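Example (one chain per record):
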Amino acid sequence: MSFKVAIAGATGNVGREMLNILEERAFPVSEVVPLASRRSVGTEVSFGNRTLKVKALEDYDFSDTDICLMSAGGSVSKEWSPKIGAQGCVVIDNSSAWRYDADVPLIVPEVNADAVKGFTKRNIIANPNCSTAQLVVALKPLHDRFTIKRVVVSTYQSVSGAGKDGMDELDRQTKALYSLQDVTTKKFTKRIAFNAIPHIDVFMEDGYTKEEWKMMAETKKILDPKIKLTATCVRIPVFVGHSEAVNIECEKEITADEARDVLRAAPGVLVIDKREDGGYITPHEAAGEDATYVSRIREDITVENGLNFWCVSDNLRKGAALNAVQIAEVLMNRKLIQPKAKKAA
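Predicted structure:
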């Protein structure tokens, strides 16, 4: 059994990572079709040892395609995902366009895979925000055991979360500073090189940014609507890998040792927590890896049933491309979709 898979936004950072991960995980494909806007037609992308040429999303017929991994941005997804879904192709969308739609499941397979069955309403499944994905992977086992009431999280997010333009700006500014040239700012609101910017996405009326609001809304939808969450999201001069300092408050008594044991047994989590120099994971070490790493586990002595930990993951993988492919694997393994060729036969 193999599936015809389209990648919309195949020339971007996440689209290219989707191609890599499909190959790495040996997802059973009969054909892979890279798609982008018309200006990218003919651009070459790699899929394993093959080179594929990009086709135009606007001209593509999805009627014989089983899955579309969509990473072309929110406005493109808003326009095209319903059209693609109407042709019987399941869209797994990486943008924020459908995350808050009640008829679209928002899925992290280690956390709420059972909710994926709701995809039939629109033939669309949403990927969460990159900062939310790794957070809920770490929160899920702790919530199941200790019942989390409140989360306070500060994020330290890499520039790849802002796309290729963000990575290019950090590279360009760093080179300019080392060569004593003027630094120009285009993608970010302030200089990102050797700096930290407490501003991701747009500001909302209550003073939070949209990125911070996303973490709250998505955690409630994915994990538990009763959980209270407040976030401060910061962009830092790291190319790949998001880090989070997390504080949780639970209903049940929790110790650092118990939390460590629970996390070690959890799917998708790797605990690296030695109380010594270097006994923790940084974004540099998490880059290119699939796991959500948890370090610095310790009790919060200022509140009853409180815990602190450090959480790191590759935002291009678990925060985006890997999670999308894992959703496709859930659909396949649970036999929620069948290849169209097989259905026709």
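Caption: The longest helix spans residues 130-146.
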